[in-house]
Amino acid sequence: MNSAANAAAALHRPETDPTPIFEHFRGMHGSELLTAAVAHFDLFGRLQQQPLDFASLRQALQLEERPAHVLLTALRAMGLLQETDGKLALTPLAAEHLVPGGPLDCGDYIGLAAQTPGVLTMVRLLKTNRPLGSDDSEEGGAAFIYRDGIKSAMEAEASARHFTLALAGRAKNVAPHLAEAVSLAGAKLLLDIGGGTGIYSHALLQKNPDLKAIVFDRPEVLKIAGEMAEQYGVTDRCQLVGGDMFADEIPAGADVILLSNILHDWDKPECQQVVDRCAAALAPGGRLLIHDVFLDDALDGPLPIALYSASLFSFTEGRAYSGAEYREMLTAAGLTPQPIVPTLVHCGVLAGVK
Ligand SMILES: C[S@@+](CC[C@H](N)C(=O)[O-])C[C@H]1O[C@@H](n2cnc3c(N)ncnc32)[C@H](O)[C@@H]1O
Predict the structure, then answer these.
(1) Relative to the CA of 289, which of 178, 185, 250, 300 has its CA 20 to 30 Å away?
(2) Each residue of 126-146: pLDDT tens digit?
């Protein structure tokens, strides 16, 4: 048992900003999406014929809405597509260099990567709209997500531990910034839905000595949250509750509910369901905190978030959303959105007040 006196500090801010490391890691998706667009979807050839609105282009590419957003947002962020009068068109850069058969076309060069494993996987995911690990032919189940009817890696001890601890590196860096950015003065109970390691809760508990927290997640994941609570010396104020946020009762009466990196794992109807359920469970006057990344409201960048969106798309049933999309969800749940407060690694907090 770790006493509070020799507990690890969850409030230790990194001396250097790890954001570029995450950007380099996610950068592979830029290459995959560009190559897919050029060599598998003939996207630039199609748009050379005529600009198309999102729905028509999506139909022409035979993509469902989520993969179409991931692909087209990334290409807009790369400066290859632009929206004019509601239609997507080639930018001068794409028109000069990516239209098949053009005098300065670089498409065959990009096509050198057409059959590489990463590109082929991305093309399959875009076409099927299913995350890695979710097919019956694949072992293990999808990472980070659980709902009735899907094969989830979060239900088996070893894979739940593997994926949960994988997020600890980011959480340890970002949590001190979150604890600094969000004042919980006066709050008595924090509910951390899908809390994973619980590190964000542990940092908030260390920062706010009168606060108590509930970390709500799948039972196998909570084993790690319990170990971490010991390391950070907050076990006496941190309760672990196992459940399914879509089906089980959300503990009622918290002043603050945290959805840290949760909604980006889900498609819009599931996001709305979670936001609605959290809003109903909040105490009057309470806050729902969406801690996540935010695309521009026009869904045309920034590029690092657009590439992270492809990563989220690959692993889960979600993607990155814009501030406007999240504000719409909060408003539909009867909450009043507040301005976004940045934390670290492109993340920020968007609060909705009940
Ligand atoms: C991407 S992780 C985020 C973890 C942590 N909040 C963070 O920011 O690092 C998503 C978390 O949601 C949990 N989760 C997914 N589906 C869930 C469900 N239906 N009910 C409860 N928790 C769920 C996962 O087990 C996982 O810990």
Answers:
(1) 300
(2) 999 999 988 777 778 999 999
Q: Tell me the CATH architecture of domain 161-353.
A: 3-Layer(aba) Sandwich (3.40)
- What's the pLDDT tens digit per position in 151-199? 999 999 999 999 999 999 999 999 999 999 999 999 999 999 999 999 9
User: What is the CA(317)–ligand 1 centre distance, in A?
Assistant: 13
Q: Which residue has the tokens 């009622």?
A: 252
Encoded tokens for 82: 């632009």
From CA 113, how far away is CA 39, in angstroms rounded? 9
- CA dist., res. 288 & res. 191, Å (int): 9
Answer yes or no: is the ipTM higher than 0.90: yes
- Tell me if 297 sits within 8 A of 324, measured CB to CB: yes
- Are 165 and 227 in contact, with CB atoms under 8 Å apart? no
Nearest CA to ligand 1 atom 6: 195
Give the residues surrounding ligand 1 with Cβ less than 6 Å away: 144-147, 154, 164, 167, 171, 194-196, 200, 217-218, 221, 244-246, 260-262, 265
Q: Give residue 266's identity as a one-letter amino acid code.
A: W
- What is the distance in A from the centroid of ligand 1 to the CA of 45? 40
CATH 1.10.10.10 domain residues, the chain: 20-139
pLDDT, one tens digit per residue, over 115-130 is: 999 999 999 999 999 9
**Which of 167, 201, 263, 349 has most ligand 1 atoms within 8 Å of its beta carbon, as the pocket-test mutant?**
167
pLDDT at 7: 84
Domain span(s) for CATH 3.40.50.150 in the chain: 161-353
**What are the beta bridge partners of residue 259?**
290
> Which atom of ligand 1 lies nearest, measured to the CA of 164?
27
Candidates 3.10.129.10, 1.10.10.10, 2.30.130.30, 1.10.8.60; correct CATH number of 20-139? Answer: 1.10.10.10
Counting ligand 1 atoms within 8 A of each CB, the residue from 155, 200, 218 with the most, and so the one to mutate, is 218
